[in-house]
Design a protein that fits this description.
single chain, about 240 residues, mainly alpha, 10 helices, about 80% helix
């Protein structure tokens, strides 16, 4: 990767880390479409490496507020969704994967912006986990289905629970990507190279997590993500 591309990717991930460290989700809604524009090879493998480091850090910071029962049921649903997502990555061409990433991101933006409220029942947790697993493995964006379920909870519960789920889910996604040949030493090296950016964002989020008004930042995050996803779709269509 060229130094300029590495610097740009690090900067984008720093913003993503700040967003997720503050809200509990959103790092890859912000970063994934831009990473695709910088270098399509950064998604999903290298981005998943960086995201895994981030979710471990957030889950540890907010460990006292994790909804452990919710984590258990959601992870149970995430396993089959992760397998399907891995097969999608292995079977699709780069152009098709870009179309998938752009489409899923736009759908995620619409769903999250709509403030749809889902009951936290076992079937809903299983379904949200399955969809999150598919999206997380194929596009690195697995947060929106879970955020819909937990969006009415307090900030520490959202951050702790979602990232507790992501810790297990990211491990499953990494194993799946390795198994289908989409995460090797080259992708590992790229992932480690861009990880410092997301750590910088996490450190910065310590100052915003307790004070941020998610209602005011969410339109900015979703608007930027929607624009970036549209750019990815345009690039895939004309590429």
């Amino acid at each position: 990767m060229e130094p300029l591309d590495l610097a740009l990717a690090g900067a984008v991930l720093a913003v993503g880390g700040l967003v997720q460290g503050s809200l509990g989700f959103g790092s890859m809604i912000v970063a994934a479409p831009v990473l695709v524009l910088i270098d399509p090879g950064l998604v999903p493998g290298p981005a998943m490496i960086a995201a895994t480091v981030l979710v471990v850090l957030i889950a540890w910071r907010e460990r006292a507020s994790i909804d452990r029962a919710g984590v258990a049921w959601t992870v149970a649903g995430r396993v089959p969704g992760t397998v399907v997502g891995g097969y999608a990555v292995a079977a699709l061409s780069q152009r098709s994967l870009e179309l998938l990433i752009g489409s899923v991101l736009l759908a995620a933006v619409v769903l999250t912006a709509g403030n749809l409220h889902l009951p936290r029942s076992r079937p809903v947790l299983l379904g949200a986990g399955a969809l999150s697993g598919f999206m997380g493995t194929s596009t690195t964006v697995g947060g929106p289905p879970l955020a819909l379920v937990y969006q009415q909870e307090a900030g520490p519960v959202i951050r702790g629970t979602l990232n507790g789920i992501f810790v297990v889910g990211s491990a499953l996604s990494i194993v799946t990507l390795v198994a289908v040949g989409k995460l090797g030493l080259a992708e590992l090296g790229s992932g480690l190279a861009i990880t410092p950016g997301i750590v910088v964002g996490f450190v910065a989020s310590r100052n915003t997590a307790a004070r941020i008004d998610s209602a005011s930042i969410r339109p900015i995050v979703l608007g930027g993500a929607g624009l970036a996803a549209a750019l990815v779709l345009i690039q895939a269509a004309v590429g």
